[in-house]
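Researcher: I'd like a candidate sequence for this fold, 393 residues long. If you have to choose between options at a position, lean toward the conservative one.
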């Protein structure tokens, strides 16, 4: 009788659940690590490890003791970076080297890579702790952001030089390392993402999504697939990403990128090798009819992508319900004018809901009747959600 193969999923949140189930569908024994025992994936797991996986040494000690066959990251930079460190030590498949992973997942290092390759990106300046604040080479407005955080945490748009010191202080405070921050020139345009699955050094299949930030200015809370991007922009993005893949010798797997476009030009904002969060992959699955989570895990299992035939897309929007001010949730309802609406609840009645970008109430998926409905409704999805803070109806 053959031995049951074992995988360790680095992450336990609701965003990691599709990855967990994709691993189970491969017939694997799936262990989960994450420090919060109440997280969803701990409830599903064959075995759980309640550790802070952002500490690569803690993760390495589990891997060394348990003899896993596969190591799989989930949906935040910490899971990928710790995974890359451990994968390099124990020769797990699917990860870039730790050096390359650091270049892609740290904002200041990624800016240097983009600059070296001549890829379009906003002008920027790196500022280290105690370094004099000089932005004479940049044009306002600026975005001030930590080099090592995600979901827009610690980011501020600054319109004038007198507001810079407070923004710089906020960015350093939210930075995990506290070592450096980025001052980036603000560019005007629409926000989009590009999920490309790399195989044999080239993009094998990809998906474009339109994105909107309507509650917290730097965290996506509404998105739709398919995208309304013009084909010429898609071709330019693919060319840029293939250049990045080739020059950096990236491993097979997902390369997910956010960019801003003004209809003619585009600017790369950030890129990552881990899975995007908030059930992003489920949006693509519902719309395009592909198994996004399975595509994501295959390189970590040392497997190739299956043959894919895309025969058009259904019109879908995704909405992460969040609030600008904290409250205690009693109930909520959705009145989205759509063909169908599915809701993944993340809070129970009576639970506290913190403000964006630190907390969320639910993820909503809406299927529209037409592309026009998708275009008109998706940016306004927040308007169709009613959150009741008490029992009075």
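Model: Candidate sequence:
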């Amino acid at each position: 009788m053959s031995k049951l193969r074992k995988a360790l999923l680095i992450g336990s949140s609701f965003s990691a659940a599709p990855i967990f189930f994709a691993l189970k569908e491969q017939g694997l024994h799936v262990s989960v690590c994450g420090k919060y025992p109440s997280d969803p994936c701990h409830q599903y797991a064959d075995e759980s490890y309640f550790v802070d996986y952002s500490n690569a040494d803690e993760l390495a000690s589990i891997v060394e003791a348990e003899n896993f066959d596969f190591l799989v990251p989930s949906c935040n930079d910490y899971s990928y970076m710790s995974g890359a460190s451990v994968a390099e030590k124990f020769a797990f498949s699917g990860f870039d080297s730790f050096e390359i992973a650091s270049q892609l997942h740290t904002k200041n290092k990624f800016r240097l890579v983009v600059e070296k390759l001549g890829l379009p990106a906003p002008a920027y300046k790196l500022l280290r702790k105690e370094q004099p604040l000089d932005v004479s080479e940049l044009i306002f407005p600026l975005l001030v952001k930590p080099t090592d955080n995600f979901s827009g945490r610690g980011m501020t748009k600054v319109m004038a030089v007198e507001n810079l010191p407070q923004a710089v202080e906020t960015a350093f405070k939210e930075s995990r390392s506290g070592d450096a921050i980025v001052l980036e020139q603000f560019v005007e345009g629409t926000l989009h993402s590009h999920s490309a699955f790399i195989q044999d050094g080239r993009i094998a299949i990809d998906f474009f999504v339109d994105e909107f930030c309507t509650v917290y200015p730097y965290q996506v809370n509404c998105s739709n697939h398919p995208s309304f991007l013009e084909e010429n922009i898609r071709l330019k993005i693919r060319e840029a990403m293939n250049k990045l893949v080739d020059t950096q010798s990236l491993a097979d797997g997902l390369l997910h990128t956010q960019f801003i476009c003004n209809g003619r030009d585009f600017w790369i904002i950030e890129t990552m090798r881990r899975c995007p969060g908030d059930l992003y992959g489920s949006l693509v699955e519902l719309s395009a009819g592909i198994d996004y989570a399975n595509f994501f895990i295959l390189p970590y299992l040392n497997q190739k992508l299956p043959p894919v035939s895309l025969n058009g897309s259904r019109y879908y929007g995704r909405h992460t319900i969040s609030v600008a001010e904290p409250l205690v949730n009693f109930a909520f309802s959705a009145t989205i004018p759509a063909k169908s609406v599915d809701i993944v609840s993340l809070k129970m009645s009576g639970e506290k809901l913190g403000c964006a970008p630190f907390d969320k109430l639910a993820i909503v998926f809406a299927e529209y009747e037409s592309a026009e409905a998708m275009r008109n409704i998706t940016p306004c999805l927040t308007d169709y959600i009613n959150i009741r803070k008490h029992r009075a109806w």
